[in-house]
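FAQ

Q: What does a record look like?
A: Structure on top, sequence underneath. For example:
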């Protein structure tokens, strides 16, 4: 019979299980802490390849925004920040991205502020490219069609600044929610009324257009300006406060503005092309059909910024409005 024996194990010091409230990490102690992110290239796992984006997503804090008509709003904002990573560097210090943003968090939002944050990213992290995106829900007081009631409409907005190879781009994304009455269904319903005296209603549905625009020039494009642009293109925006006269007015407004999903992106395209503060743009529309068990969708782009051959497989799943 063979008896297995283990080599003698080194003695271990018993570890404390109590949190050391009184311990202070002075500079000398901090200097001894391991820093694997900034370790040598020999520690890289996998391909020694450049990474286009690495950072943090969805850290939240209150940010102050100016309203077009004056005053400020403090809104919860989700921030995503990323930088490029050279092929011979192992990693980045993620917390520095957050700290860089917090240096400017008390300043009211502007793209100049975002630019200063990206400057900090590039300096603190030694990166050549950087990107920052801020997502929020922006409230606007909207008046009903006939009764004069007012209510708050909330718009999903994202602001983005990209610093790539020395070139900076400013981008705004807006989700615009509207009602789309099918032109074909409207004509068929009217045909049934006129030829057979048959009551019929055209199908209409809540729809979402995601409008993404590159800002150009010195003029400021306010959130309110972009909403107004969308409203000119597609006036059937969903309503906040509604009495009977408003509901009737909305039915009439839909009847006067039937729209296929192809019409929606083209109508928005016409308005965006006429706006001098907008450069490249993309419009994605989703009509969440009440007739079909699927959605009708369309994408229209102008310029290289948003041109795409492939799109995210779950892209259209994100075009859902939550009231």
């Amino acid at each position: 019979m063979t008896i297995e024996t283990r080599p003698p194990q080194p003695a271990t010091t018993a570890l404390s299980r109590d949190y050391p409230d009184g311990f202070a990490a002075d500079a000398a102690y901090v200097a001894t802490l391991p820093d694997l992110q900034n370790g040598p290239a020999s520690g890289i796992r996998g391909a020694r390849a450049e990474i286009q984006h690495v950072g943090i997503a969805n850290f939240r804090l209150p940010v102050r925004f100016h309203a077009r008509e004056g005053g400020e709003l403090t809104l919860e904002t989700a921030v995503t920040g990323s930088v490029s990573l050279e092929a011979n560097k192992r990693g980045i210090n993620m917390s520095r991205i957050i700290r860089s943003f917090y240096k400017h968090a008390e300043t009211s939002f502007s793209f100049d502020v975002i630019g200063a944050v990206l400057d900090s990213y590039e300096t603190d992290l030694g990166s050549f490219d950087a990107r920052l995106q801020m997502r929020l829900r922006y409230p606007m007081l909207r008046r009903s069609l006939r009764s004069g009631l007012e209510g708050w409409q909330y718009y999903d907005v994202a602001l983005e600044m990209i610093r790539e190879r020395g070139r900076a781009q400013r981008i705004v994304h807006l989700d615009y929610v509207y009602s789309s009455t099918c032109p074909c269904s409207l004509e068929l319903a009217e045909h049934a009324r006129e030829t057979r005296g048959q009551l019929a209603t055209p199908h209409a549905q809540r729809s979402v257009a995601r409008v993404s625009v590159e800002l150009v020039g010195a003029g400021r494009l306010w959130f309110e300006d972009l909403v107004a642009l969308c409203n000119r293109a597609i006036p059937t925006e969903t309503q906040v406060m509604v009495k009977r006269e408003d509901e009737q007015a909305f039915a009439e407004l839909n009847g006067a503005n039937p729209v296929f999903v192809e019409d929606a992106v083209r109508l928005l395209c016409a308005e965006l092309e006429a706006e001098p503060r907008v450069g490249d743009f993309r419009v994605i529309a989703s009509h969440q059909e009440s007739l079909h068990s699927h959605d009708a969708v369309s994408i229209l782009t102008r310029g290289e910024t948003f041109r795409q051959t492939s799109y995210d497989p779950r892209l259209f799943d994100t075009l859902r409005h939550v009231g």
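Q: Is there anything notable about this one?
A: DSSP finds seven helices and eight strands in the chain.
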